[in-house]
């Protein structure tokens, strides 16, 4: 990925010099990150289901609904990231 500008390879802070490693980002399109996050929300929801009664007694059933909302929003985000990855691949192939 070329950003079009020169990035510094060293930083001098005080009397120390730090070398900047030239590495590529691990997850450029965010699909894998979104998949893992969505799966974790689902696992949290399923893990809390056996404790429904306890959660209800303590007024914390909102924990379940938060997990379910996180899963649903994660699915929306996953679809967005997959479409973005597909569009980027099409743009690279075209130009």
Report on the structure:
This protein has 95 residues and is mainly α. The chain has one domain (26-94). The chain has three helices and two strands, in the order E-E-H-H-H. It has helices spanning 31-48, 52-57, 62-94; strands at 10-13, 16-19. The longest helix has 33 residues, at 62-94.
Order of helices and strands: EEHHH
Query: Overall 3D geometry?
Result: flat
Tally of helical segments: 3
Output mean pLDDT.
90
Structural class: mainly alpha
Number of DSSP-assigned strands: 2
Short overview:
It is built from three helices and two strands; from the N terminus they run ββααα.
Main attributes of the structure:
single chain; 95 residues; mainly alpha; two-stranded antiparallel sheet; 3 helices; 8% strand; flat
Write the layout of secondary structure elements.
Layout: E1 10-13, E2 16-19, H1 31-48, H2 52-57, H3 62-94
Antiparallel strand pairs: 1-2
Helix pairs in contact: 1-3
């Amino acid at each position: 990925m070329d950003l079009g500008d020169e990035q510094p390879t060293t930083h001098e802070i005080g009397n120390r010099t730090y070398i900047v490693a030239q590495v590529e980002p691990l997850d450029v399109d965010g699909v894998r990150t979104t998949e893992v996050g969505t799966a974790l929300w689902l696992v949290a929801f399923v893990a809390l289901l056996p404790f429904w009664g306890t959660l209800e007694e303590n007024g914390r059933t909102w924990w379940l609904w938060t997990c379910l909302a996180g899963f649903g929003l994660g699915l929306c985000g996953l679809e967005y990231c997959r479409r973005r990855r597909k569009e980027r691949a099409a743009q690279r192939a075209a130009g």
